[in-house]
């Protein structure tokens, strides 16, 4: 196997940003991050023109890509098409995300992801089921006719699915699940995330105590923080150990709100980036359908006919630029929010989210402008 030393770019290993060093690759295996004088003589030097080498992005909320919506093409081929589209933007690992749908579609989605993993589709880490056990009051673009309480059959299915997959994330609202159900799911290995909810502080804290440890797209489709009722936003920012996804497209959340959230959560890695991407990533389509409703793509927004935001027209390089240039986040922190931070939420990250010695290489290159660059040429 060819031995290469990649140099000429900064290196972010998932936690630390290194300058003036090289990554050693022995075939597809990382042999270390070393200083110039430590490059072995039998390694070929590959010069990069600046930018940053870093772990491939990890996205825990991906509804579609490449012109495909997971809800519409709920098959291993659909999963593969979505993963391929996101790979062109630097995402190397993801959770295909099913938006609120029927029980039959939910079962098909779990089967599709399990089959895709068995077939070796690159980067598929499990599945994210966003609904249907949400709040009608905070439904967003979810079909209200499909939102419902969690029943015994639902809970049993989810517990069994968690045993079939490396990771199963489920977004629920306390209005439509009980704390006993949350505890049962958590014990079975489900990553329970709160979202699309109008719950108050007490209900959020009860759900956290029962085992929920994540929040879906912080600030969006949830009870906001007020002076007398902190809501889910306040509960998330005030509760240690709770992680939260964030859509940093400059549309879903104001830069000042992101600054407040990042200053409130310690460590900063407890807030991670998601794209909440729809079928538009890796595609030039101008519109698509979601549960039979038209979604329009215009000026970086995806909306239903009534103006309701319907996912995001976003990739991670863009989100990182928003964090750095508009919010004022340090580069290393922004990169962690797209790599090691989401990986830390998972039950099994399968080695993604970090560059580690003697581990498989899953890295990517961002140029000096923050744009994704394919490393296939090396």
UniProtKB/TrEMBL annotation:
It comes from the Bacteria. The keyword Metal-binding applies. It is an enzyme of class 3 (hydrolase). Residues 52-357 form the Amidohydrolase-related domain. Its EC number is 3.5.1.25. One of its GO terms (molecular function) is N-acetylglucosamine-6-phosphate deacetylase activity. The keyword Hydrolase applies. Keywords: Carbohydrate metabolism, Hydrolase, Metal-binding. NCBIfam families: nagA. Belongs to the metallo-dependent hydrolases superfamily. NagA family. This is N-acetylglucosamine-6-phosphate deacetylase.
